[in-house]
Amino acid sequence: MKLNPVLERLTPYRAGPPLATVQKRYNLAQIARLSANESADGPFPEVVDALKEALDGLNRYPDGWCADLRETLAAQLDIPESCLVFGNGSCELLMLLGEAFLGPDRHSVFPLPSFVMYKAIAAANSAPFTAVAQPELRYDTDALIAALREETTLLTICNPNNPTGGYLEPRQLRSLLDRVSEHTVVILDEAYGEFVTAAADQDTAPWVADYPNLVVLRSFSKIYGLAGLRIGYGIACPEIIDALDKLRQPFNVGTLPQVAALESLRHPARMEERRVHVDRERRRMSAELDRIGVGVLSSQANFLLVNVEGLAVPGEEAAQALLERGVMIRSGYAMGCPGWIRVTIGKVNENEHFLAALAELRGFGG
Asked: Best label site of 2, 97, 175, 276, fewest CB within 10 Å?
């Protein structure tokens, strides 16, 4: 058989072993699962009820236009319905944007470290790319602008950034957008945007009216606890939305994800409770890590990037050592952050489990 030669440049995304497999292998009664940036809680109770009611209709194809969700979201964001597109998670929309705007003669720019799919999408479309190193693991917008070329068609910014948690304030984002050519599409990946508590934060949805080359991506996987249902959306000018609609498969968003997302939007107070919990815990965890002499970056997301140099084990072995102590985290060595780990903010008892395990590896007993 003759496979597409581009596949030689790609590697499958590895999400890690099943929880039951890890528990059995290391004889663990319980595990703090803090590796995938999932919500510590499941769907809102009202969402669970809505999903149960929707089960009888699963013999029919879903609404391919996501009409009810589209109408509600457009009203909440105060944007035209024609400026919305929905996907099987925001990651599908990233892939569709790659298909729409990349090719062998089109260049992509993204920061490093950042979400690993940005590089994979460029490679899948045979596009040259520049991964712009970020000094001290913080955004350098001047370096990103300097990397742009005449043939650059995509510039991707993850805000807050995965895996660092770094955040560009609205004034910084606007300054960047003002310096980007109109033929370069700027993807603003806000998968973790609902966790931001910075005073200067603004809703960027209305910005697409000012910047026709801007695409804002958001996800229901994180704060809404719907990672297992896979649904996200994009906000952009109608021309870009039309291009993505031409590429997406029919009925790409299932019935249950649409029902869950729609019901989730009806309960902003529950979402705010989760935002407050994450903010409180990331502050508390950061303070405790500082107390035991472990470096940690400030974050506006639902995770922390933690330095693991100077532990009782080498940095590259920290993830395994924590796993053997019942804590699943993500090693930075696989994400362009050697010497660091990314830990999701979970429930209080899970966070305590992590802190105790890390303190043990730090040789800190009290």
From this structure: 2
